[in-house]
C-alpha cells in the first residue's frame, strides 16, 4: 500500500495504468502481511529466521520466471531480516519428474540455496514462514524492489542469491564453449524475441525481427562483436531472423523448435523432453545470454532476468517497451 501511495504521490499515473493489477496487488500484500502475522503470532512480522520461497504452477513457469521469483523474494527476505530458502519440492513445478513431488527439491538439482541453508534444515527449525505463492504477491515484491532499489543493487543480489551449483555450471560452460569453432573468447550480441504463447496469453508485445536485427547490427559494429546469438522458441520468428543476418555469424541453441499453434510453450517442450533435458536446455539458453556483451529484444522473462544474471553488466542494452499487449 505504501508503494501505491508513493507512486500516486509522484504522479506516476502512466505506470499505474500500465499495471492495471497494482491495486489488487496492494490488497493482496496486506492480506499476506496479515496472514504472516496470524501464522506466527508469537513473533512480530518479519522476525522469523527463514523465509520459504514457493510459487504457484498455474501457467507452468519456466526457469526465467523461477530465477526472478527467487531473486526478488530473496531481496524481500533480506529486507525483512530473514534467510531465504527455496522450496521446489513440496509444490508442483514443470521440471519435476514423476515421483519427484515431495521427495526432490528441483532448485537444489541445478542451483545453490540462496541463503546457504537447506530446505530440510529450515523446516526442521520450526522458525520459518512460507511465502504466498501467487502471481500477485510476486508482482508486488518485484514492483516494490524496482521502486526503491537501483539496477546495480539488484544485479549484485542476483549474483548473490541465484547461483548455479558446480555441476550445472560446468555443464553450461561446456555447452557455451561448444557454440564456437575455436577456444578463443568471443563477444556476442544477444537477441531475444518471444512468440507462440506470448501472443496467446496477452504478454507484452514483442518487437519485429527486423527491429531487433537493425539494433543488433548497430551493436555488433559499435561494440566490436564476433557473433549474433539468437534466442527464440518460435520457428517462424527464427526463420525470419536467419534471413536478416549473415549465417556465418549467427549462433543459437535449440532455437525455433515450436510452431505457433496455441498452448503454453513450456508444457509443449516438457511433453516431449524429460524434466532434466528441458531444464538444462532452458538454462543453457539463459546462460548463453548471460555471456553476451549486448542484449536486444522484447520484454520477456528471459530479458528481465538476463539483465541481472549477466556475467557483467551489458555494455549495450535495448529492451523494446510497448504500451500494448497481445
What can you tell me about this protein's structure?
By secondary structure, the protein is of the alpha/beta class. The chain has two domains: 2-161, no CATH class; 168-320, Rossmann fold (3-Layer(aba) Sandwich), CATH 3.40.50. It is 48% helix and 10% strand. The protein has 15 helices and eight strands. The protein has helices at 2-9, 13-18, 22-39, 63-79, 106-110, 119-125, 135-148, 151-161, 166-177, 197-200, 209-222, 235-242, 265-272, 275-290, 301-309; strands at 50-53, 83-86, 128-130, 188-192, 227-231, 250-252, 294-298, 316-320. The strands form two sheets. Strands 6-5-4-7-8 form a five-stranded parallel beta sheet, sandwiched between helices. A three-stranded parallel beta sheet has the order 2-1-3, sandwiched between helices. Helix 4 (63-79) links the parallel strand 1 and strand 2 (83-86). Helix 4 (63-79) packs across helix 7 (135-148) and helix 4 (63-79) packs across helix 8 (151-161). The longest helix has 18 residues, at 22-39. The chain starts with a helix and ends in a 6-residue tail after the last strand. 40% of the residues are buried. Residues 1-23 and 37-44 have low confidence and may be disordered.
| Bulk shape | globular
Please indicate the count of domains: 2
In DSSP terms (H or I, runs of 4 or more residues), the helix count works out at 15
Largest sheet: 5 strands, parallel
Main sheet strand line-up:
6-5-4-7-8
Which spans have pLDDT < 50 for at least 5 consecutive residues? 1-23, 37-44
Question: What letter string, H or E per element, gives the SSE order?
Answer: HHHEHEHHEHHHEHHEHEHHEHE
Count of distinct strands: 8
Amino acid at each position: 500500500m505504501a508503494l501505491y501511495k508513493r507512486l500516486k504521490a509522484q504522479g506516476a499515473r502512466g505506470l499505474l495504468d500500465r499495471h492495471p493489477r497494482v491495486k489488487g496487488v496492494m490488497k493482496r500484500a496486506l492480506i499476506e502481511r496479515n496472514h504472516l502475522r496470524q501464522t506466527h503470532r508469537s513473533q512480530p512480522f518479519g522476525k522469523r529466521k527463514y523465509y520459504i520461497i514457493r510459487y504457484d504452477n498455474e501457467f507452468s513457469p519456466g526457469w526465467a520466471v523461477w530465477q526472478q521469483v527467487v531473486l526478488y523474494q530473496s531481496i524481500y527476505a533480506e529486507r525483512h531480516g530473514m534467510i531465504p530458502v527455496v522450496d521446489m519440492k513440496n509444490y508442483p513445478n514443470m521440471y519435476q519428474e514423476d515421483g519427484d513431488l515431495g521427495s526432490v527439491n528441483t532448485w537444489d538439482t541445478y542451483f545453490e540455496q540462496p541463503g546457504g541453508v537447506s530446505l530440510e534444515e529450515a523446516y526442521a527449525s520450526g522458525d520459518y514462514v512460507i511465502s504466498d505463492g501467487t502471481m500477485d504477491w510476486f508482482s508486488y515484491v518485484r514492483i516494490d524492489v524496482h521502486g526503491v532499489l537501483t539496477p546495480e543493487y539488484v544485479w549484485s543480489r542476483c549474483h548473490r542469491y541465484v547461483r548455479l551449483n558446480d555441476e550445472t555450471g560446468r555443464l553450461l560452460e561446456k555447452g557455451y564453449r561448444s557454440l564456437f569453432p575455436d577456444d578463443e573468447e568471443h563477444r556476442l550480441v544477444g537477441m531475444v524475441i518471444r512468440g507462440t504463447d506470448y501472443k496467446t496469453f496477452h504478454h507484452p508485445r514483442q518487437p519485429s525481427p527486423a527491429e531487433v536485427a537493425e539494433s543488433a547490427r548497430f551493436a555488433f559494429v559499435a561494440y566490436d562483436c564476433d557473433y549474433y546469438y539468437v534466442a527464440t522458441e518460435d520457428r517462424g520468428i527464427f526463420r525470419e531472423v536467419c534471413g536478416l543476418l549473415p549465417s556465418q555469424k549467427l549462433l543459437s541453441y535449440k532455437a525455433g523448435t515450436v510452431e505457433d499453434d496455441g498452448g503454453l510453450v513450456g508444457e509443449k517442450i516438457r511433453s516431449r523432453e524429460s524434466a532434466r533435458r528441458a531444464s538444462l536446455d532452458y538454462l543453457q539458453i539463459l546462460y548463453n545470454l548471460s555471456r553476451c556483451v549486448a542484449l536486444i529484444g522484447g520484454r520477456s522473462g528471459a530479458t528481465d532476468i538476463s539483465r541481472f544474471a549477466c556475467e557483467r553488466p551489458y555494455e549495450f542494452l535495448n529492451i523494446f517497451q510497448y504500451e500494448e499487449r497481445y
